[in-house]
């Protein structure tokens, strides 16, 4: 697989195209973001917890996928990756 070298214009750091453009967020911040962005539309049957565990964060991903739009689905995928990384 050919990888192209790139330089991030804001940070000046170089990396490969396969690198993510931003640092991976932790599951707690993604959990809170899910309620901020999709609480009324996709998470209407859930209440945000003050100190969610990875299991709590994973529990909302099904609702994000079923009740939400494409942005909600992508956020669900990010939450799942962050929870796997936290374990």
Please describe the topology of this protein.
Layout: E1 5-7, E2 14-16, H1 27-38, H2 54-59, H3 61-67, H4 70-86
Antiparallel strand pairs: 1-2
The helicity comes to: 40-55%
C-alpha Rg (nearest Å): 15 Å
pLDDT averaged over residues: 82
Order of helices and strands: EEHHHH
Count of DSSP helices? 4
Characterize the largest beta sheet: strand count, sense, and whether it forms a barrel.
2 strands, antiparallel
Distance between the termini: 30 Å
Give the total of beta strands: 2
Low-confidence stretches: 1-22
Strand content: 5-15%
* Biggest sheet, spatial arrangement of strands: 1-2
- SS content category: mainly alpha
Number of domains: 1
Shape: globular
Question: In words, what does this structure look like?
Answer:
The protein has one domain. It is 48% helix and 7% strand. By secondary structure, the protein is mainly alpha-helical. Strands 1-2 form a two-stranded antiparallel ribbon. It is globular and about 30 Å long.
